[in-house]
TrEMBL record:
It comes from the Eukaryota. It comes from Trichogramma kaykai. Coiled coil: none annotated. PANTHER family: GAG-LIKE PROTEIN (PTHR47331:SF1), PHD-TYPE DOMAIN-CONTAINING PROTEIN (PTHR47331). Residues 173-266 form the DUF5641 domain. This is DUF5641 domain-containing protein.
């Protein structure tokens, strides 16, 4: 199962030194990297050569420490074939979505490295908070696997802030501007993501019907960042064609009847 978890790092330049600094931060927080996949950007090719040089020219003590840290395995760098931008689509999709929305929200505004790093960290938490599948042997709808679970053992969170998307902020309120952009990103990206999950190929194939005990996402446009309203289907209601058109869902707050167009099924990966 591919979780498509993301780790976002801001860099000060598009060169080998900046990448190596970002790579060190990544390894320090996430642990040793056994395999690294990338395109053939000059900064990546240069970084690969630098890592090889450090390992080959290092002292015996340095190499022994590396062996212990990597459990006998150094980082293996895999480059995409030349002139093949379609390679790496799986891991590039999340970053592509981030860039798409950020460009439209940030515009020509400039931020300090600290401000932009904070913004990226909060966006990373949003992307890694999305529910993937119910956890085995769990009846509680909130017990779901997210991309953050393999990284930190639980779902990621974004500190709650009052709604700021419609607020008129002055240029001096830079910290609130970061939170405003984070909230706007959440609204745009969440709508795009849920619409992707609900894609329908009309008349070509039938989709899986909703069933009792399914865990579902309830679409809600006013939720705070990284909050995913989950519920469990307690009853299904058929239309005249014999297909499920609405269901009764149960949450900690009670039960309610919802049309299936306002719900998203979570796939149960066996």
């Amino acid at each position: 199962m591919a979780t498509k978890a993301v780790h976002l790092e801001a860099v000060s330049a598009y060169d080998t030194s900046a990448f190596l600094a970002a790579f060190r931060r990544f390894v320090s927080r996430r642990g040793p990297c056994r395999h690294l996949y990338s395109d053939r950007g000059t900064n990546f090719v240069g970084a690969d050569a630098e890592l090889r040089r450090m390992h080959s020219e290092g002292s015996g003590y340095y190499k022994s420490i590396c062996a212990q840290l990597h459990d006998g395995h150094s980082t293996v760098w895999h480059f995409n074939p030349p002139s093949s931008p379609h390679f790496g689509g799986l891991w590039e999709s999340g970053v592509k979505s981030v860039k798409y929305h950020l460009k439209r929200m940030v515009g020509d505004r400039s931020f300090t490295f600290e401000e932009f790093s904070t913004l990226l960290a909060q966006i990373e938490a949003i992307l890694n908070s999305r529910p993937l599948t119910p956890l085995p042997d769990s009846f509680e709808p909130q017990n779901v696997l997210t991309p953050a679970h393999p990284l930190i053992g639980e779902s990621s969170v974004v500190i709650a802030e009052p709604p700021l998307t419609e607020a008129k902020l002055s240029p001096s309120e830079r910290w609130l501007q970061i939170q405003q952009i984070t909230q706007e990103f959440w609204q745009r990206w969440c709508e795009e993501y849920l619409s992707t999950l609900q894609k329908r190929n009309k008349w070509l194939s039938s989709a899986k019907n909703f069933a009792v005990d399914d865990v579902v996402l309830v679409r809600d446009e006013i939720l705070p960042c990284a909050r995913w309203p989950l519920a469990r289907v307690s009853a299904v209601h058929l239309g005249s064609d014999g297909l499920v058109r609405s269901v009764t869902v149960t949450t900690a707050k009670g039960s309610s009847k919802r049309p299936i167009v306002k719900l998203v099924q979570l796939v149960d990966h066996d």
